[in-house]
Amino acid sequence: MTDEHKYGIKTVAIQTGLTQLVIRAWERRYNAVTPLRTETNRRLYSNADISRLTLLRLATEAGHGIGRIANLPTEEILQLIGSEREIVQSSASATEMGSQEASLRFYIASCIAAVKEFKAHSLESTLFAASVAFSQPIFLEKLITPLMQEIGEQWKTGTLRIAHEHLATAVVRTLLGNICQGFDTAVATPNLVIATPRGQLHEIGALIAGTTAASQGWHVTYLGPNLPAEEIVGCAVQNRAKAIGLSIVYPTDDPHLANELRKLRRGIQEYVALFVGGSGASAYDPIISAIGAVRINDMPTFRTELEALRVQQNASVASEES
Question: Is the pTM of this model over 0.70?
């Protein structure tokens, strides 16, 4: 079993809107997808398999025969479904007729296809449509996060070039930045500094954390990727930040990162909370624990921690005033 192939056929049926019988038939007769087989002959599917099966379902519902389209590239299946406007309309119909997961998979597949063709405008339009179709937590946690993870996986395997990854990052960065700026914050709103430490170049996780915090009523100062500890500390001190959020993705074996985290912790007041998240954060658990930082596993946990910190600080201020 691999990280890419981890879904059983029951889960795939729920997420794609297809029956297990149809999935097996499309595999056996048309080789629509090729799942991994375990030693016990159990089928395991990847995110890419789920996205492809979802698109094939939508194409057949539009009148295209599965025998003719089963082996077409994903980009051609998307073209069969229709133009950009029709894609959005088809996805809206999928949301009404099928599961939310199926609709999410459709949007992700549409985004991947746009990235592969370097169609930034199409990617922007699809993401904007998705941001309207779903609540913000769903959009951030179940579309943007898996989308960027899948792009990262395809880059590692050579399916996508680094230029594809850069294009996707640029579009998502702009979108999340606009969302974050759309929140009104009061003068008394607590400050949160978001960045990635020195050596960490992947910033989408940090942007998602910043957008999440802004939606929770925090004033977010986003510093971007690859920042030395001294610069993060300087901003936090000047802004009188109540918390700092760091995202760690790759590499997971940086010998210098532990020292960067120690310097950061020494440079800020004890009451300033330090949150560390990202897919690579667990690799640095010993140092994260040693400096008293809180490791964040997901955005719901981050929201809970931020709310608890605000409640704690409000109680402290009330106690001092009384």
Answer: no
